[in-house]
Amino acid sequence: MKILKKYKAIMAVAGVLTFTACAHEDQPTESQLDFSVPVKTPLDNWISANFLNPYNISAQYKWNQNKVDNNRFLFPPLTENVQPALEVVKQIWIDSYSEVGGADFVKILAPREIVLVGGVNSNSNGTRTLGIADSGQRITLFEVDYLDTSNRENVTEFIHTIQHEYVHILNQNKPFDEQAWQKITPGDYTGTWHLEQLQTSRNLGFVTNYARNNIIEDFAETASTILTSSKAEYAALLASITNANGRAKLKQKEAIVVQYYKDAFNIDFYALRDAAERNTTAVVNQ
Length: 286
Known about the structure:
- The structure is a single chain.
- This protein is mainly alpha-helical.
- The chain is built from eleven helices and four strands.
- A hairpin with a 3-residue loop joins strand 3 and strand 4.
- Helix 2 (about 40-55) packs parallel to helix 3 (about 80-100), helix 3 (about 80-100) packs across helix 5 and helix 3 runs antiparallel to helix 11 (about 270-285).
- The chain starts with a helix and ends with a helix.
- The relative contact order is 0.10.
- Residues about 1-25 have low confidence and may be disordered.
C-alpha cells in the first residue's frame, strides 16, 4: 500500500510537471496583438470633422466582413468615391434635418454608424437592396461606386435610401399610429410587391410597389418619397393616379406622416421637404 501510494504521488507530480512544461512551451515569446495606432488619412480626418465629432456618427468604408452579409457578393467602395457619397448624405439628409429640426436633432436621433458598400446588393427575386437599418444603430448604404452626383435622378435614388432608413429609426424611437394606417389599405399588402405594376399600386393608394410590402415599409416609403420629391413632382405623382379613391387613400397616408412629424418631433414636414429639395439642387449643381 505504501509503495502504491508513493507511486501515485510520483505520477501526480510528474503529470503536473509535464503539464507545466507543455504549457510553458506553448506560450508565445511575444504578443501577437497589434497595438499600433492606425495612421489617419485625410479622408479619415474629414469623416471625423464632418460626422464623428459633430454628430457622433462613425462612417465606415474600410472592409469589415462582420458588418455585411457574407452570403452576398459585396465589396468595399473605391476610396475616391467615399467622400462624395458622404457629402451627399450630409448635405441632403443631415443639413436638412438640422435646419428644420434643430442643430442637435440628428446628433440625438441618429444611427451611430454608417457602413458604405461599393457594389450592388442583389436579391434572388431580381430586386436590389439599396439600404439596411440595423436596430436603429447602423445604416448600410450600397452602390456607393455607382453614385453620380451630377445626375439628379441618381442622387435622388441614393438619398431616398437613407431617408427611408432614417424614417425607420424615427419610428423605432416614437412609433406612428399603425392601427390608423392599417385601416386605409388593409387588404392590399403583398409579399410579391416586386411583381406588381407601379400604376396599379398607386391606384390602390401606395406611393411605390415596395410600399405594399407591409405597413412599416409603407410609412417609410410614403415619407421618404415625399422628402425626395419637390412639391411639383409630388403633385404630378398624385395627378397621375387615375383612381380617385386610390388618390384619396394616399393623401390620407400623407396626412398621417405630416401629423406624425409634428406631434412626435415638432417638425414641419413640408419645410423639411423643401430644405431637402434645395440641398439636392445644390449638390447636383456643384
